[in-house]
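During the reporting period the student researcher (J.K.) took over the structure-prediction task from the postdoctoral fellow and processed the backlog of single-chain submissions. One of the processed entries is reproduced below for the supervisory committee.
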Amino acid sequence: MHDLDDSEPAYLQAFRGSFTAALRWHQLDTLWERVRARSGDGWYLYAVGEEPPAKPADAARVETFVTEIDKLLRKEHQEDYCGIVYADDLQAPGFIKIYDPNNLGVSCGYSEDPPLPGWVMSRIPPIDLPATQPPARSRRRWWQQLFS
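J.K. obtained the following structure tokens:
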């Protein structure tokens, strides 16, 4: 668990905050309904690994993203549960992490090096998430041994 740090960007504080999973598909449907009801409220759509967007998406783009990400998740995460979409508040979401079904690692539970989500929807302008993550310990050890 990370302690909140005043020097840490607001986006990173929110990213490391408390989240609840849309565990079942019907909960994801409800979450998408709530997002769609507020699609014009300044959602930033961020594909982690790409350049973070400088401005929020318009309502049409949010609608397209929600429709297409839902199709992708249902096609590629062929489970009877969802559990790979997390929101800061399922009733009034402002920050949503969507994990890539093909790169889950340990997205739930505890891990020293949890994977980054594939996509993030937020009402806060995003920052480059991969740049904030230290390399995995095994990679740090490899790097240290390479030149020792």
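The committee noted the following: The chain has one domain: 10-146.
J.K. will present the remaining backlog at the next meeting.
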